[in-house]
Amino acid sequence: MTYSLPQPWQQDKIIQHSQHLLASFEHWLGYSLIDRSGSPEEVAHLLFEAPFVIVSHDSQPDPIFNYGNQKALELWEVTWDQLLQMPSRQTAEEMEQEERALLLKETQEKGFVQNYTGIRISSTKRRFQIQNGIIWNVMDDQQNYLGQAALCPRYQYL
Fold it and tell me: What does pTM read for this prediction?
């Protein structure tokens, strides 16, 4: 008998997190990122398979990724399990760390930042530029801060 693990979007914790990501995006930006009319599991599946990159990290002082859709896993060249152990700072080269920290601080203060452009690196050190990114604070149903998420609608390898 073979046992297959559920896809990330099928896990209860990720289904709930997907709802927080999307509700927070709509709260800050005023529009829906994707169609949310299906069941929570259907919506989580849509988000995981979306044609754009979505990632999020937790609220620790040195945040660790807690979500990345399929496009994010491909872009950063990691598995789901690898992503969930990766500090988000590792996606920026050392020379970009200060600029990234300022961006995250600005997002925390304002709730979101639009039109972000920046250089990032994959796990294999492949460099790419994010274009027209959006970063937003992720909140739970009681408006408790959970961390931050990023939408990368376009990127270009360098």
Answer: 0.93
